[in-house]
Fold this sequence. Notes:
There is one protein chain. The chain is of the alpha+beta class. It has one domain (3-89). The protein has helices spanning 20-23, 47-59, 81-89, and strands spanning 3-8, 28-30, 33-35, 67-70, 73-78. It has a three-stranded antiparallel β-sheet with strand order 1-5-4. The longest helix has 13 residues, at 47-59. The two termini are 18 Å apart. This is Reverse transcriptase domain-containing protein. InterPro entries: DNA/RNA_pol_sf, Rev_trsase/Diguanyl_cyclase, RT_dom, Viral_Replic_Matur_Polypro. Residues 1-90 form the Reverse transcriptase domain. It comes from Photinus pyralis.
Amino acid sequence: VQFMSSIDFTHGYWQIPLANESQKYTGFKFNGRSYCFCVLPFGLSSSVSTFTRCLSQIFGHDYEQFLKIYIDDILILSETFEKHLEHLEL
């Protein structure tokens, strides 16, 4: 691999809504008040696999040869600069 770009989905987890029946399992207290997440929180035991599965569904198998998903990052790998530009446009 000669060229590599990375994309960090900083708040990517928060784009995935939690099912209403799952929200109660994310509860916590802060300053005497109770809260729960409505979206996928970072740090939940299933968050990484859920987010990775969502990204895999979005990009599909066509991109596996040059696109790697790791936690909340995507790596785009290419052998030539021209190919890298093509991959980035996809």
